[in-house]
Design a protein that fits this description.
Layout: H1 2-28, H2 32-36, H3 42-45, H4 57-64, H5 70-78, H6 89-117, H7 120-148, H8 152-176, H9 183-200
This protein binds 2-acetamido-2-deoxy-beta-D-glucopyranose (NAG).
């Protein structure tokens, strides 16, 4: 009995000493350590003279993960992220509002192009949508001011009005009995306004 326990201890000691020497050899091997610690971000390992992006897009993605359309949010912010020094909920919100403004301008340009070939009813609907888009632009300005004040309630109400304007535009075409040629715009703008609503819920007021 005693002999068997002694034998077991010897085996254990041998295993421990073998693993320790393996571990020691592993740590001492040059170049191994970097591969052994995968959590160090690549940018921290880079020499100083190589410029790194001011904003790791990972952070934008992390913020966007909490919104209703994470991929759309990240793609939208990604184009602008480099202009911002730090990325937080408010800056991502600004990026989304700026992108909403750009997309709304594109929608208005589309209105002009569609109007030429439209039926009288279609042209009337396009004209109405154009004025709704004007409303959207006003609400985006109000939203920008609200972001400056970290005023989540006002941000949400401006975004509700934006979403409503987009629905009104859709309704104009339904009333006219025509397919809405701006539907893609209205959908993506609506989704972007949802992203802004989600982001407004994440604002921390200190
Ligand atoms: C907007 O969101 C809806 C789901 O609510 C989705 O079906 C649609 O593809 C999205 N459209 C755009 C243009 O992002």
């Amino acid at each position: 009995m005693a002999g068997r326990r002694h034998h077991a201890l010897l085996v254990l000691a041998a295993v421990v000493s073998t693993s320790c020497s393996l571990l020691g050899a592993h740590l001492m091997r040059p170049g191994e350590q970097e591969e052994a610690i995968p959590v160090i971000p690549d940018m921290m390992m880079r020499p100083q003279h190589i410029p790194v992006p001011a904003v790791p897009t990972r952070t934008v993605a992390e913020i966007c993960r909490g919104t209703s359309f994470p991929e759309l949010c990240t793609a939208t912010a990604g184009k602008q992220a480099a202009r911002y020094g730090t990325v937080d909920v408010l800056t991502v919100l600004q990026m989304q509002v700026d992108a909403l403004g750009e997309r709304t301008k594109a929608a208005r340009a589309r209105v002009d192009r569609e109007a030429a070939a439209a039926t009288p009813a279609g042209r009337k609907a396009l004209h109405q949508c154009n004025s709704f888009y004007g409303d959207v632009m006003d609400n985006l300005d109000a939203c920008r001011r609200a972001i400056g004040h970290k005023d989540a309630v006002t941000i949400r109400s401006t975004m509700s009005m934006v979403a409503q304007d987009l629905q009104f535009c859709d309704e104009e075409f339904r009333k006219a009995g025509e397919k809405n040629p701006l539907q893609q715009f209205d959908q993506s703008l609506g989704n972007m306004s949802e992203i802004c609503r989600s982001l407004s819920n994440m604002i921390v007021v200190d």
